[in-house]
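STRUCTURE:
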């Protein structure tokens, strides 16, 4: 009977370790998420579990309506809200970054680090009297 009691003690020890390492933290995390969801209010900036940023416009019993772009709204379940963010985005700031370019001025993003402006090439040609060296090319896979 001594061997059977040792097995029961080891099972209880294993269950205790499992409880403190897995069940208890998961329960705390679930409780914190439920508290965060109940604190949601209109105007909050949130991120969904799918990575979509949006602003809360309406709240229902188990759903939330987010404005994910100007005049674009979508409904999500409350449980799909991952976190409340405090990121303030100025939409006018991003509109200034996008400048329409002619087809010959378009630079691939992978070559953006090594791109040379046309003025720089002209300055280099006049200063050295010869053509400017080409920027180093990255090896392609």
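SEQUENCE:
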């Amino acid at each position: 009977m001594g061997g059977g009691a040792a097995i029961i003690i080891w099972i209880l020890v294993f269950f205790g370790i499992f409880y403190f390492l897995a069940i208890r933290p998961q329960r705390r995390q679930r409780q914190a998420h439920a508290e965060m969801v109940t604190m949601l209010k209109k105007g909050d900036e949130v991120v969904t579990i799918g990575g979509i940023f949006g602003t809360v416009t309406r709240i229902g019993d188990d759903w939330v309506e987010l404005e994910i772009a100007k005049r674009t709204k979508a409904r999500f379940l409350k449980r799909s809200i991952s976190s409340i963010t405090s990121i303030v985005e100025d939409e006018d700031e991003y509109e200034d970054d996008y400048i329409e370019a002619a087809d010959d001025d378009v630079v691939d993003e992978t070559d953006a680090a090594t791109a040379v402006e046309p003025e720089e090439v002209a300055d280099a040609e006049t200063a050295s009297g010869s053509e400017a060296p080409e920027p180093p090319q990255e090896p392609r896979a």
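REMARK: Strands lie at 45-48, 53-59, 63-69, 72-77, 81-85.
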